[in-house]
Amino acid sequence: MQSICFVLLLLLVELAVGESDIDALLELKMGIQTDTSGKVLATWDSNSLASDGCPRTGDVMGLLAQLGDMTYVDLSCNSFSGSLDLGIGNPDFISSVQYLNISNNNLTGQLFPHDGIPYFDNLEVFDASDNHFVGNVPSFSFVVSLRVIKLRNNQLSGSLPQGLLQESSMILSELDLSHNQLEELNQVADICFSTGPVESISSVNLRKLNLSSNRLSGPLPARIGHCTVIDLSNNSFTGNLSRTQSWGNYVEVIELSSNELTGSLPNQTSQFLRLTSLRISDNLLEGILPHVLGTYPELEVIDFSHNKLSGFLLPSLFNSTKLTDINLSWNNFSGTIPADAITRQNYSLLSLNLSHNAFTGPLPPNWAGSKALYILTCRATFLKRFPSSSFHPGNDLLVLPNEAPPKGGNNLNFRHHGSRTKSANRAALIAGLVGGVSVIAILTLVIYVRVHQERSKATSTETGGKKVLSSSEIESGNQPATVSSVVPSPKDRDYPESTRKLDVVSSPMSMTPSVNTSPAKLRHQSENPSALKVCSPDKLAGDLHLFDNSLKFTPEELSSAPAEAIGMSCHGTLYKAVLSSGDVLAVKLLKEGIAKGRKEFAREAKKLGNIRHPNLVSLQGFYWGPKEHEKLIISKYINAPSLALYLHGTDQGALPPLSLADRQKVALDMACCLTYLHTESAIPHGNLKSTNILIEVPNINVLLTDYSLHRLLTSAGTAEQVLNAGALGYLPPEFTSTSKPCPSLKSDVYAFGVILLELLTGRSSADIVPGNPEVVDLSEWVSLMAAENRAVECFDLQILGTESRESLPKGLDSMLQIALKCILPAAERPDVRMIFEELSAIQL
C-alpha cells in the first residue's frame, strides 16, 4: 500500500512539470492524506509565500556545519545572515566541496578572519558577491585548485593579497573584486608602485580581472599577463595611457572609463588584434585618433566620450565590418564627416554618437536616403535612422539631412535640372505665398472680432453682479488644477512659488501633481520659495550611470517614462517615474547650481551607490546632462508613508496608530542603519528628518532616504541643506557658531535624538509650544519639562492609551533618557553604536 501511495505522489510531481518548484510542491501537498510530521499540511500555503519564492533564513554557519560530503553548494539569493569563520562545516564538507556560492545574502563580518580558507582542498569556485563583508580580502594562498573568486559588491577594503595576480601554483582564471573599497594597490608584489615602474601581472592563468568601482590609484600596470578581460573603470588611476602599449594580444575587453588618465591613444600596429571592446571614456586624454584604430580586426565597441581628443574623423575608422557602437561625444573633434563613412561594408553599425563636438559641413547624403542606410535600418532592430541627438547639441555648424542649414552653411537639397522645373517651382512658390498671406489676414480679422465680443460679454457679466472666482478661492484649491505639458519658461520660473501650484512638466518626464506631500514639506515650501526653483531639461542627452545591475534602461527610456511630481525639498523636485519595463523609480531633479563639478560629483555618487543596508534606500544611479540644471539622482521608489505622516500628518486617520513597540522598532532600525553608515562607511547621513524616514507595513520596516547627499553638493548647496534642517528643528546648537557648518556624525546623533522625541511626543520637530516664550522648538521644550520633572506631560496620548500618567508603560522613560542624551552638547553626545545598544536593551 505504501508503494502505491509513493507512485501516486510521483505522478503528481510529474503533472507539475513545466510549472515552478513552488507550484509543484503545492500540487504534491494535495495528494498527501496523512502528515505524521505535522510540517507539511499545516505550513505549505501559497498565501504565505514571499514574492521571490521561498527564501531561506537563518545563520549560514549553522547550515554549513550540517553539510557532509558534498561537491556543489548553492545558497545564493536567500536571506542567510551571520559570518564565515574557521569552524565552517565539518571536515568532510570542507575537503570535498568544489563549488560554493553564498552570494546575494545578508552575510556580514570579515571573510575567514582566522584564515580558515586553506582547509578547502578542492574548492574551485567561490562566490560571496552582494553581501556585507568587511575587512581585507583573504589571501587564498593554499587553495591551489581555486579557479574563480567573486567578491563583488561588498565593503572589502585594504590592499589586494600578493598572490592573486602573480605567477604561482594557483590556477585562478577569474577574479572579481568590483564595487568594494579597495584603496591600496601598491602593496601587491608584481604590481609595485612604490619603487620604480609598474611591474607585470605575471599570472599566466588569469583571464578575467575586474577591479572596477573601488578607490584604487596610481599608474596602470605595465603588463597584464594573459588577461582577456580587464576592467579598472571607476577608480582614480592616473598617469599616461601609453602604459597599455605592452599589454599584448591576448586582451579582448579593456574598460578604463572614469579615471584620471592622460596622454594619447596608442598607435602600435602589432597589438590588440583580438580586441572587441575599448572603453576609455571620462578621462583626460588628448591628441588625435590614431590611424591604427581602424585596423583592429575584431573591434566592435569604441567609447572615447568625455575626453579632450581633437582632430578629424578617420575614414578608416568606419571600414570595420564588425563595429556596432561608436561614441566620440564630448570631445573637441572638428572638420567634416567622411563621405564614405556609411557604406555597404559596415552595415553592422548600430549606434553612432558624435554630439558635443565641433563638426562642420553637411552630413553625407547617403546617410539619409541611400540604399546602404536602408540596409542598416533593416538589420539594426533598434535603429530607424541616426537621431539628431547623436550630433546635437554641439556641432552647431553641422547640417543634417532634411534640416535647414545654419546661416551661411551648405545644404543637402538636390539640384533641380531644367528651366521648366525651376519656373514651375517659382510659380508655385509665389502662388503659395499669396494664398498664405490671404488666409492669415482673414484669420486675423476673425480672431479680432471674437476677442472683442468676449470682452464685451465679460464686462457685462461683472457689472451684472454675477459671482466671480476670488483669489482666496484659488489659493484654497477650489480652482481646478491646470495641467501643463510644456517645460516651464524662464518667465514662469520667476513667479513666487508659494503662490502657484506644482506644474506638470513634460520633460524629462510627463508629470502630474501629487496630493501626498507631507505637511512639513508644504510648510517648508511656503517658507522657503527658493526651494522650488527647479528647471527641467528639454531632453535627456547626457550620460546615465547605473550602479544596480538589475536595472537596465537608457536616457531615452527615462525621458519618455510617465511620472508624477511627489514632493519638493531644498535639493530639488522628486518624481515617481514608471519605466516601460515596469520598474518604478524615484528621480530627484537637482536645483540648478547646487551640484559639484562633474568629476567630483561622479566619484562621490559612485561611493554612495556602493553603500547597501536593509534599512537604506540605496542610490541606484545618476544622470549628468549637458546643461547646468540637468542633474538627476535615481533610486528605487518606495510606496510607503513617511514617519511625519504617521505622527503629525493631516490625514492620520487613514494610517494605523503606532504603538510604543512600533516606535521602538522605528528607532532601532534607524540606529542600526546609522551605525552601519558611521562605522562601516564613516559618513554621516546628513539629512535626518521624519519626512526622510519611510515605514513599510505590516512589519514596520524602516527605510532611510536622501542619505549623504551633501557629498554631492557645493558649499552653497550644503549650507542651504543645513539652513533647512535648522528651520525644521534638526540643527544642533554648535552649528550656530560655525561659519561653514557641514553635516557630521555628531549632528546625525542630534537629529536622531530629535526624531526620537517626535516618536515619544507625537509632535513635529519645529512645533512652537504656545504660552512658553522660553522655548523655540521641540527639543528645548522637552528638555525644560524634564528639568522640571514634568516629562510625563510630554508623551503622546496614543502611547499612554487608557493608562494614567502616573503608571507609564515600561521602557518609555528609558527611551526618553536616550533622546535627551542625543541632544546634549556635541562633546557629551554618545556615538550611535552606544545608542543602538541601549535601545536594544530596553524591554517593553
UniProtKB/TrEMBL annotation:
Compositionally biased intervals (Basic and acidic residues): 490-503
Domain Protein kinase residues, every copy: 560-842
Species this chain originates from: Sesamum angolense
GO molecular function, one term: protein kinase activity
Signal peptide annotation: 1-18
Cellular component terms (Gene Ontology): membrane
Pfam families named in the record: LRR_1, LRR_8, PK_Tyr_Ser-Thr
The protein's name: Inactive receptor kinase
Domain of life according to the entry: Eukaryota
Record's compositionally biased regions (Low complexity): 504-519
Topology versus the membrane: Single-pass membrane protein
Keywords: ATP-binding, Kinase, Leucine-rich repeat, Membrane, Nucleotide-binding, Phosphoprotein, Receptor, Repeat, Signal, Transferase, Transmembrane, Transmembrane helix
Record's compositionally biased regions (Polar residues): 458-487
Metal-binding listed as a keyword: no
Keyword match Kinase: yes
Subcellular location: Membrane
Transmembrane segments: 427-449
Chain residue ranges for the region called Disordered: 456-529
InterPro entries: Inactive_SerThr-Kinase_ABA, Kinase-like_dom_sf, Leu-rich_rpt, LRR_dom_sf, Prot_kinase_dom, Ser-Thr/Tyr_kinase_cat_dom
